[in-house]
Design a protein that fits this description.
single chain; 260 residues; Rossmann fold; 9 strands; 43% helix; 15% strand; disordered N terminus; disordered C terminus; binds zinc ion
């Protein structure tokens, strides 16, 4: 296509820049690309090539529709370095889901304490899936609940369907930090609605959680305490539970920094 265009303009096509990290700053105000003036084709003395802004824009567009927070920009499977056997196994399961979907049987529930890389793997899965053109969506559990709550309309006594509908219908949903909200009746009912609806429609769900099925100490909640019996049992049917062990790598970094 770019080559055809170049021919029409009597220009020779030159190879595109393969380095996706080429520094290219889009002017936010006008959002006009200084290289191609939004034509998508960069004209050089020796010919023309697809402008690197196209890749950048399509990546931005994808991240926006997937709702990935910007600070996960550099997260990928390659950047996940397993430090235990369970982490290596989890990476394998996650990568397998992302490449094999939709030929998979289960979603994935990544279970482990803080800082072992659950969200990293979930984000890497979403990125891989969206690169493959599969619509998917990321939500941190408590911010999803807040968004649904904020959209509540007292007149209709219902929450906006525009918030809930994509969450129910997206082919792959990541619910990050499942169980992080205090399990009030409303939270449990809303979660049950989302999970049951996705189950009935055969949609895949990927969850991460800091809570375990076994109570680590008498004072700590289990996942069932946080999401309710119904939802935990439904998740057993929908997701393969993958446990990650290890220590908090973010804490480790903090500690090593404190030495300096
Ligand atoms: Zn451009």
């Amino acid at each position: 296509m770019a080559q055809e265009k170049a021919k029409n303009h009597n220009l020779k096509a030159v190879p595109s820049l393969t380095d996706a990290t080429t520094p290219l700053v889009l002017d936010e105000e006008s959002s006009e690309c200084p290289k191609c003036f939004n034509s998508g084709l960069e004209v050089l003395p020796e010919g023309a090539r697809p402008c690197s802004c196209r890749k950048l824009k399509s990546r931005e567009k994808t991240l926006k529709s997937v709702r990935l927070p910007k600070h996960y920009g550099s997260v990928s499977f390659d950047s996940y370095k397993p430090r235990t056997q369970l982490q290596a196994a989890a990476k394998k399961w996650a990568a397998n889901f992302a490449t094999e979907y939709p030929a998979v049987n289960y979603g994935i529930l990544l279970m482990g304490s803080v800082g072992v890389g659950k969200t990293h793997l979930a984000v890497a899965m979403l990125k891989k899936l969206s690169e493959r053109g599969i619509p998917c969506m990321f939500y941190e559990f408590s911010s999803l609940l807040k968004k649904i709550q904020d959209s509540y309309n007292p007149t209709t006594q219902a929450s906006e369907l525009s918030v809930l509908s994509p969450v129910l219908n997206t082919p792959v949903l990541v619910l990050d930090e499942l169980g992080s909200s205090k399990p009030t009746n409303w939270v449990l009912d809303t979660l049950a609605l989302i999970i049951n609806s996705r189950y009935n429609e055969d949609k895949f769900t990927i969850c991460t959680t800091n809570y375990f099925d076994n109570r680590p100490t008498d004072r700590e909640d289990t996942l069932e305490d946080r999401v309710g019996v119904r939802v935990r049992s439904r998740l057993h049917e929908m997701c393969r539970t993958i446990i990650l062990d290890g220590t908090d790598y973010r804490k480790k970094i903090d500690q090593s920094l404190q030495r300096y």
